[in-house]
């Protein structure tokens, strides 16, 4: 589509009804370049404000977002189809992250003295984390506030400007988040949104003025973004989803585990990067767990307890995974008939082979596979077998054993006796490994992700007869240093 001025536009649609929610410009590479150039200027101004003023502005933004909670939730609800209550909770979670980033940026990133060591005894050493400049954020549609805000708030708190490209399915949410920021920071476009399709994101990733890209989406697109970043050696954070497993050990609270598995798998119609997609249950409690799970699932319905599938193309993936899982395993709840586009009712399939798409590939729908295992070791081995490594869950009655299993789970985050709880702890880093990507948002690591470490060593006084970095250095000085180093480091302890 295009307007009378020739500007190409696109519509965001309500996935439940297909009606138009909003019309937005398709910003091309030139428009992105102009936005980034303005943001470069804004970044210098924002960095110059200093820690205290940035903190004040970000806390004000937090208040503005909180005051506009229902307005934001309404746009999220219309663009994604998720219930307004879920959208509200998403915004609340984002608010806690803005708050944490604002309050902790100086502590984590500000200048500090570090020990220079004995050899550098005449030096004062300081470490600080400086802003990068302009950070490009490419966001997803499944949590269009919470997920990008995990990068945006931390990048802003670290002193950067942000140019945000929201998903083409949720542009209105992205535009509103930036508009509200301008209420707290009206002077400069420190946080702005560019709208468009994939090519707008590609232009942002390839723009030489962007000093880091924070991407959330599929592994395949992350690789394309990384290729675009390579042109300028632009670093990136990649959050690419997962195939998260929930393990139920023999001594677990089976009712709580079933409740958590169901919510973890079905809430947000399963469109959660850290949602539960696989469950491994130890033999001793398998039957009891399945009874609890199926009883609970029978009361859950798409369109009432959760919304439609936001991205129409995803329905084909969901259909394919269900068909294969049902053919090779046993459908316990629902089946192919559960897909009533744009809705999908809960589907639970047991005993699906580990090499099937429903166990190996991200489904991103309200489906879950359940498998009986001999013990928690077998569960962990199976949980760790996939290419993804984002998050996971362990239900166990033994805290020490659960933590030990959690450590060995090949993921960035693990929740114990609850699902996804790590996402609500702002001080915990969030991110994965393998096909789930790399880099971290949230917490101190999330702040450092958007900053560059700067080390400064200042000579406080000259060490007499110890000027090692001079052509005037003699053998005597070197002998002295060798003696010192041998004394400090040359003794072997057995
Ligand atoms: P994509 O990975 O294609 O999109 C994610 C973001 O990248 C969107 O903003 C998208 O813009 C943008 N984008 C697309 N192409 C490019 C490009 N060449 N250069 C730069 N940016 C680009 O995900 P989809 O929305 O298509 O979803 C596909 C699958 O990804 C899902 O089924 C799910 O499995 C997974 N996913 C995982 C998420 C997670 O939380 N980790 C979130 C969303 C999806 P635009 O929307 O305009 O195309």
TrEMBL record:
Biased region (Polar residues) positions are: 1-10
Q: Where is the active site?
A: 239
Alphabetical list of SUPFAM superfamilies matching this protein: ALDH-like
Which spans are transmembrane here? none
Pfam families linked: Aldedh
- Which keywords label this protein? Oxidoreductase
What InterPro entries does the record tag this protein with?
Ald_DH/histidinol_DH, Ald_DH_C, Ald_DH_CS_GLU, Ald_DH_N, Aldehyde_DH_dom, Aldehyde_DH_NAD(P)
Q: Domain Aldehyde dehydrogenase spans what residues?
A: 6-454
Q: Give positions of region: Disordered.
A: 1-22
Q: Which PANTHER family match?
A: ALDEHYDE DEHYDROGENASE-RELATED
The family line of this record is: Belongs to the aldehyde dehydrogenase family.
What protein name is recorded for this chain? Aldehyde dehydrogenase
Taxonomic lineage per UniProt? Answer: Bacteria, Bacillati, Actinomycetota, Actinomycetes, Streptosporangiales
């Amino acid at each position: 589509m295009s307007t009378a001025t020739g500007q190409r536009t696109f519509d965001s649609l309500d996935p439940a009804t297909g009606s138009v929610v909003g019309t937005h410009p398709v910003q091309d590479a030139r428009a992105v370049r102009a936005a980034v150039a303005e943001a470069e200027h804004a970044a210098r101004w924002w960095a110059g404000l200093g820690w205290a003023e940035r903190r004040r502005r970000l806390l004000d933004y937090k208040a503005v977002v909180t005051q506009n909670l229902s307005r934001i939730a309404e746009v999220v609800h219309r663009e994604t189809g998720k219930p307004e209550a879920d959208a509200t909770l998403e915004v609340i979670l984002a608010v806690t992250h803005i708050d944490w980033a604002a309050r902790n940026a100086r502590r984590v990133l500000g200048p500090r003295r570090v020990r220079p060591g004995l050899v550098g005894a005449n030096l004062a050493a300081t470490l600080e984390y400086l802003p990068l400049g302009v950070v490009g954020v490419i966001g997803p549609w499944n949590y269009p506030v919470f997920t990008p805000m995990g990068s945006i708030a931390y990048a802003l708190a670290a002193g950067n400007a942000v140019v945000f490209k929201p998903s083409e399915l949720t542009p209105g949410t992205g535009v509103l988040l930036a508009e509200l920021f301008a209420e707290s920071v009206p002077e400069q476009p420190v946080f702005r949104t560019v709208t468009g399709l994939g090519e707008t994101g590609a232009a942002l990733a390839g723009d030489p003025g962007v000093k880091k890209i924070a991407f959330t989406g599929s592994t395949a697109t992350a690789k394309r973004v990384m290729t675009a970043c390579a042109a300028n050696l632009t670093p990136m954070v990649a959050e690419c989803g997962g195939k998260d497993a929930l393990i139920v050990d023999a001594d677990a609270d089976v009712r709580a585990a079933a409740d958590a598995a169901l919510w973890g798998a079905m809430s947000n119609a399963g469109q959660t990067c850290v949602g539960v997609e696989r469950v491994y249950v130890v033999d001793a409690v398998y039957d009891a767990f399945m009874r609890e799970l199926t009883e609970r699932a029978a009361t859950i319905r798409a369109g009432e307890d959760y919304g439609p599938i936001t991205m129409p193309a995803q329905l084909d993936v969901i259909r394919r995974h269900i068909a294969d899982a049902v053919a090779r395993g046993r459908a316990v709840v629902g089946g192919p008939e559960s897909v009533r586009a744009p809705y999908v009712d809960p589907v639970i399939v047991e005993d699906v082979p580990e090499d099937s798409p429903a166990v190996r590939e991200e489904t991103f729908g309200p489906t879950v596979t359940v498998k009986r295992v001999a013990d928690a070791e077998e569960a962990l081995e199976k949980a760790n077998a996939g290419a993804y490594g984002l998050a996971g869950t362990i239900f166990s009655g033994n805290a020490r054993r659960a933590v030990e299993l959690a450590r060995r789970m090949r993921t960035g985050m693990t929740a114990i006796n609850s699902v996804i709880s790590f996402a609500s702890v702002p001080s915990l880093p969030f991110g994965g490994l393998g096909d789930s990507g790399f880099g971290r948002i949230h917490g101190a690591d999330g702040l450092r992700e958007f900053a560059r470490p700067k080390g400064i060593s200042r000579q406080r006084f000259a060490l007499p007869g110890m000027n090692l970095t001079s052509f005037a250095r003699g053998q005597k000085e070197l002998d002295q240093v060798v003696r010192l180093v041998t004394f400090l480091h040359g003794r072997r302890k057995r």
